[in-house]
Amino acid sequence: MHALISLLLFATALPPFDLVIHNGHVIDGTGSPWYAADVGIRAGRIAAIGRLSGAPACRSIDARGMVVAPGFIDMLGQSELTILVNPHLPSKIYQGITTEVTGEGGSIAPLNDAVIKADHVTYEHYGVQPTWRTFREYFARLRKQGMGINLASYVGATQVRRVVIGDDNRAPTAAELELMTGLVREAMQDGAVGVSTALQYAPGPYAKTEELIALAAEAAKFGGTYASHIRDEGDSIAEALDEAFRIGREAAIPVEIWHLKAAGKSNWGRMPEIVARIEQARKSGVDVAADTYAYPAGFNSFSALIPPWAHDGGDRKLIERLKDPSTRARIRKELETPSREWNNEWQQVNGPESFLIGAVQNPKLMPLQGKTLAEVAKLWNKDPIDAAFDLLIEDEAFTSVALFMMSEPDVTLALQQPWVSICNDSQGASPEGLLGREHPHPRAYGAFPRILRKYVRE
Q: What are phi and psi of 188, to 5 degrees?
């Protein structure tokens, strides 16, 4: 009682709260059960939790029968560019996300003129002028313009590779690797939270494990984490997980497996095996965790459909190869041939109806957003694979697609693990403006509501 009276006297002696949320069920994120309390907010921060019915406040909300909780943390968003288009990021705020972690292999920094030139289609699509070269300069731009959520970023292993050696399929020299580790060091000093990989997307697959260990070890010196879209989420997922564990061990760094899944119809039902493998690594001393967006469909660049070798040299070279009849025929043959040598998305899905066009940059292709590849092929009177190749050519390899490649029981089992957190894995979107023209994955707005409704309440 004395403590409560002291709290009330202290609260009333201070300036009025900007906001008091009364009568809510407080879930504070510690894992303890909910409790009834009021929450007082001043200058954008929680200033008091308790019985605040007598405390002066500029505004109050009666949250009777509702939950009051901290904002959600999106363990992998993709908003580093779209936050420059619409800093409010409505799709994040609408579902309670107040902090996003981003930087999947390719990060917003470091940059140089060659990378900017290679990625000009993306920058032009979003109307963004890349005036920064380092994380320090990028964060300064965010602070100057304002931002609707908190943002943290990894430095991408792919990003530092591109800055130093471009998009070529080769190993770095010793001198180049030293430059790459130096870029990781600078990024960590600028505020990056670790180093990341996206080993499915070229030029990410060109990096050997030893290269990644060197970069991760540099990030570890600054207390960073190694986060990975692992090399294969399908047929070779066991080997891909083992590679991530090895990096964690040899670089002495915590590991985060991004958007954990058993991808591809031939791998449906393998989640128990995947969970057991991660559990065993944890027992052996590897500090490894994972996250999931809890949907049976993914969303990525449509160009990931093409085998890694065809990306050597970047998107311009990829498009040249798709236009060349003999190379195009080779790519088609590899798509149609089951293989464990690369992550073949064509073999992971049930057919062209499993690819849903989400975003394009060519205005002439806008009517295709929301259509499946099967529908596009029929509309164009083409074979589905030819339609995919021609779509990539016409859109300069920008196209993003949703692809249905997971099973619901596997998704559910992953989500049930105590070491699995939640990611949205979508760039911040808006129902209006430039960002409102795209056809995003439902998770862009619905990842956290889906989990609360489907997996908690239902």
A: -65, -40
CATH topology of domain 72-82+101-133+148-296+415-429: TIM Barrel (3.20.20)
Say if strands 97-102 and 150-153 run parallel, antiparallel, or are unpaired. Answer: parallel
State in Å, rounded, how far the first CA of the chain is from the last one.
40
Listed in order, the ranges of the chain carrying CATH 2.30.40.10 are 2-68
Nearest in space to 17 (alpha carbons), one of 50, 3, 31: 50
Q: Are 188 and 222 in contact (CB under 8 A)?
A: yes
Q: Which amino acid is at 105?
A: G
Beta bridge mates, 135: none
Where along the chain do the CATH 3.20.20.140 domains lie? Answer: 72-82+101-133+148-296+415-429
Pairing of strands 97-102, 72-74: parallel
CA dist., res. 261 & res. 76, Å (int): 14
Are 91 and 445 in contact, with CB atoms under 8 Å apart? yes
pTM, entire model: 0.91
**How would you classify the pairing of strands 19-26 and 35-42?**
antiparallel
Strands 45-50 and 35-42: antiparallel
H-helix or E-strand containing 22? strand 19-26
Using one digit for the tens of pLDDT, what is the confidence trace for 20-58? 999 999 998 888 899 999 999 999 899 999 999 889 999
The answer to whether the beta carbons of residues 435 and 85 sit under 8 Å apart is: yes
Task: Give the HSE-up count for residue 133: Cα atoms under 13 Å, Cβ half-sphere.
Answer: 5
Which of these, 320, 318, 331, 393, lies nearest to 362 by C-alpha position?
393
Distance (Å, whole) CA 454 – CA 456: 6
DSSP string, 93-109: HTTTEEEEEE--SS-S-
Which two tokens mark 304?
């990931």
The residue-averaged pLDDT of 69-85 equals 96
Give 102's strand partners. 153
CATH 3.40.50.300 fits 2-68, yes or no: no
pLDDT (tens digit, 9 = 90+) per residue, 90-147?
Answer: 999 999 999 999 999 999 999 999 999 999 999 999 999 999 999 999 999 999 999 9
| CA distance to 255, 267, 279, 280, 356, per residue, from 273 (Å) | 19, 11, 10, 11, 29
